[in-house]
Write a structure and sequence with these properties.
six-stranded antiparallel beta sheet; alpha+beta; 4 domains; GH65_N; glycosyltransferase; Glycosyltransferase; glycosyltransferase activity
């Protein structure tokens, strides 16, 4: 069943009932100020770092799931009836409801008792604030005496401290209310340079800044005492729980519409700003007040919203396609691209499934997120690569994560995930292919952000490769360390005596366990570094990297091939994992994808045998499961993977991130039907009709779908922040549709399903615009046999680079 529909023209998903299976969310902001908003206005806001600069409070694992957010209440003062135009938190019955999730904005529209409310939430481009624009209309034949109440619950800045250190925080909360603006200044006492604010465009009938005064004793946000009584208390918070609420008296004549603007924002004064009197505990508002005044004007809000939509039109214009399949067009042209920008901004740090406290920006994750984003804003991708490289360690190893605000490696999690360094080569290669900007390789970048340790980025890439070569195990395969891509496959945990506590080996070499997956990734990365070296004119270095790749490929075939598929690993004791020798976990998806991506076995048919094994043993109607059979009980020598019940997460769940590797592998093998079949299985738009099973949003990818061994087979979890977004964008746009950036031109190399007769596309590449038409007879599979560029034939499948500003017509015929 469906809970809404796609509005492709407006680039929105329209939710038509508030009781979606899970909160269906959206992200506000594209640069530094961000927010999460659900279809019932739940969520929170933060500036740059969800742990260190949280603005509003959110309680995870709450019931309802998204309780706490950007709430408005409408009250009919004649009857005492009040309700939430977003349905939550009062859950009052509405006569009409819709939530329109757009690109970095959400609008919630509703009607009750003849009163219509339309609330738009967005973050203007270039600002550190969010706008709530409420437009309320009286559709009655008689006047209505209305009051509007706003509500946000401020957070005490450091989210972990806010959730744990009550004895301090209940005594430190401070606010000021000046000219109707509520300033939350709890940390201002110490720093005197930053604060949050909550402002309203209308004269106030009252306000509240103390949560208990707003709610009343033993009452929740579903029935606040202030709203029920129709009268704010003008409370000033002294400790306890600082809160923000405005009351606006808004009588409406029949047919009248009134617009009210609320602003929630963050402000940080320059450290060198001079204010009088020195040391004052009163917030100096000289710099922020003009910003507040400007954005409280309706005309500024309208211009800002138009600018946001215009920005997204430009960002999405990098690639637009018209294929025989509506779900493909919708994801490539709008939603997959949108999700790629969100994952680039957030990595895996902040969603309704990630608190933003325990995880920062992932080294591995962020490099992969670049793959689907780099064509949108290349300069931001460049900055991100340099930020990531600066957290690399002198050994070539890497912190697994870093904090977005400080850009320092996360010591709580540390390093030792031995696949991490190789992803820096993959991410940098994607940037170079898209932009041709080789100057990035000469940028001086420190190690561990330590001054005086700077070397060119190119040397960081060299150390990334050397890190793997310095850590080879008994079979000459790469040591897995704490884990590889699968963080839950912890093969250096073991117990020498059954029943005794497990031990870990975390020495320099990370124990004896080896990873076939890292071996495949190494082949891919070594070949990419060879391409980069060639691009720089370093032919001898390129040859040495290719020699490394060939040697590792041979090692994979000698020690990583199990007869019909690639093995997964060797454990601490030297026993194979992902082998027919095993009773459980006989075949894993990751090496079948990554080894083929590295080109292992493509020439001799080995790769096709592995892909056939995936189809026979791992593919299901909801996607490809991670391994089979699942682990039925906890196995200390395998680690966390066996702690999950069968069919969930890493224990035979459909970990969607890995599915695109098989799509790409099938395309590399020339099997378009298989590649596209896998693409359709997890395409959110294609799954919209089974939303009661899928449960997560039908417009973005989820991290996982419960596998066939799970009681809830087909149910998705952990939506939005997943490498699935970038990899699916790469799989469909670069390999199935075949529009792939190269170092010296744009490759047109589609591997299409046999039923298609072609497609058209527009692709911006290095300043030029390529208008592409691909034709193919139905029922035929094959590769490009003829390529015309502006009417002239071109050998091969690469379109030469055109001057910036040029429009190039490309026609490709598949035979």
């Amino acid at each position: 069943m469906r809970y809404g529909y796609f509005d492709d023209e407006e680039r929105e998903y329209v939710i038509t009932r508030p009781d979606t299976p899970l909160p269906w969310i959206n992200y506000l902001g594209t640069e530094a100020y961000f927010g999460i908003v659900s279809n019932t206005a739940g969520g929170f806001s933060f500036y740059r770092d969800a742990r260190l600069r949280r603005l509003t409070r959110y309680r995870y694992n709450n019931a309802p799931f998204d309780l706490g957010g950007r709430y408005l209440y409408l009250r009919d003062n004649d009857t005492g009836d009040y309700w939430s135009p977003s349905w939550q938190p009062t859950q009052s019955e509405l006569d009409a409801y819709e939530c329109r999730h757009g690109l970095s904005y959400t609008q919630i529209n509703s009607r009750r008792a003849g009163v219509e409310a339309r609330t738009l939430y967005f973050v203007p481009v270039g600002e550190t604030l969010e706008v709530w624009r409420l437009q309320v209309t009286n559709h009655r034949d008689t006047p209505v005496d209305l009051s509007v109440f706003s509500s946000v619950e401020f957070c005490l800045w450091e989210a972990q401290d806010d959730a744990t250190n009550f004895q301090r925080n209940f005594s430190t909360g401070q606010v000021e209310v000046v000219d109707g603006v509520i300033y939350h200044k709890t940390e201002y006492r110490e720093r005197r340079d930053h604060f949050a604010y909550f402002a309203c465009s209308e004269p106030l009938a009252g306000f509240d800044t103390q949560r208990e005064a707003f709610l009343g004793p033993y009452r929740g946000f579903d029935r606040p005492a202030v709203v029920a009584s129709g009268r704010s208390t003008d409370s000033i918070a002294h400790g306890w729980a600082p809160h923000g609420s405005h009351q606006v008296h808004a009588p409406l004549a029949p047919g009248e519409t009134r617009e009210i603007v609320f602003l929630l924002g963050y402000w940080e004064n320059p450290r060198d700003a001079k204010f009088d009197p020195p040391g004052s505990q009163t917030i100096n508002k000289a710099l922020v007040r003009p910003v507040i005044d400007r954005w409280l004007r309706p005309e500024t809000v309208a211009e800002g919203f138009a600018s946001l939509r215009e920005q997204w039109g430009s960002l999405l214009g990098g690639i637009q396609v018209d294929t025989p399949d509506r779900d493909t067009d919708r994801m490539v042209n709008i939603w997959n691209a949108y999700q790629c920008l969100v994952t680039f901004n957030m990595s895996r740090s902040t969603s309704f499934y990630e608190s933003g406290i325990g995880r920062g920006m992932g080294f591995r994750d962020s490099n992969q997120d670049l793959l689907g984003f780099v064509h949108m804003i290349p300069e931001r991708a460049r900055e991100r690569i340099l930020d990531i490289a600066a957290t690399q360690l002198p050994t070539g190893g890497a912190y697994h994560q870093y904090q977005p605000l400080t850009k320092r490696g996360n010591n709580d999690i540390g390093s030792g995930f031995n696949d991490d360094p190789l992803w820096l080569i993959v991410g940098t290669g994607a940037y170079l292919r898209e932009t041709g900007d080789s100057s990035i390789l000469d940028e001086q970048v420190p190690y561990d952000n330590l001054p005086g340790t700077e070397t060119p980025l190119y040397e960081h890439l060299q150390r990334s490769l050397k890190y793997t070569l310095d850590r080879l195990g008994p079979h000459s395969l790469p040591l897995i360390g704490r884990a590889d891509w699968n963080d839950c496959l912890n093969l250096n945990c073991f117990s020498e005596t059954p029943g005794e506590p497990f031990q870990t080996t975390e020495n320099r070499d990370g124990g004896a366990a080896e990873s076939v997956f890292i071996a495949g990734l190494f082949v891919l990365a070594a070949k990419e570094l060879a391409n980069i070296a060639d691009y720089r004119g370093l032919g001898e270095e390129a040859a040495s990297y290719r020699t490394n790749a060939e040697k590792m490929s041979g090692t994979i075939m000698e020690h990583g091939w199990d007869g019909s598929w690639f093995r997964r690993a060797y454990d601490f004791f030297g026993a194979p994992i992902g082998s027919g020798e095993n009773e459980e976990g006989q075949i894993f998806i990751e090496p079948q994808g990554m080894c083929v991506l590295g080109g292992v076995g493509l020439e001799d048919g080995t790769a096709v045998r592995a892909l056939n094994s995936v189809r026979e043993r791992l593919a299901t109607e909801h996607g490809i499961v991670l391994q089979q059979p699942p682990y039925s009980s906890y196995r200390v020598e395998l680690g966390e993977i066996s702690s999950y019940p069968p069919g969930y997460k890493e224990n035979a769940g459909i970990f969607c991130h890995t599915n695109p590797w098989l799509m790409i592998a099938e395309a590399m093998a020339g099997r378009g039907d298989e590649a596209y079949h896998y693409y359709r299985l997890i395409n959110p738009s294609a799954r919209e009709t089974i939303s009661e099973i899928h449960r997560c949003e039908p417009y973005v990818y989820a991290q996982m779908i419960a596998g066939r061994d799970a009681p809830t087979f087909g149910e998705a979890k952990n939506s939005w922040l997943t490498g699935t977004a970038a990899w699916n964008f790469v799989a469909i746009s670069q390999w199935i549709l075949g529009l792939r950036p190269g170092f010296d031109g744009l490759l047109v190399d589609p591997v299409l399903p046999s039923a298609w007769e072609g497609f058209t596309a527009t692709r911006r590449f290095r300043g030029a615009t390529y208008e592409i038409t691909v034709r193919k007879p139905a029922g035929v599979t094959g590769r490009v046999e003829q390529l015309l560029v502006d009417g002239a034939p071109v050998a091969g499948n690469q379109v030469p680079l055109a001057p910036a500003g040029a429009t190039v017509r490309v026609e490709a015929q598949i035979g």
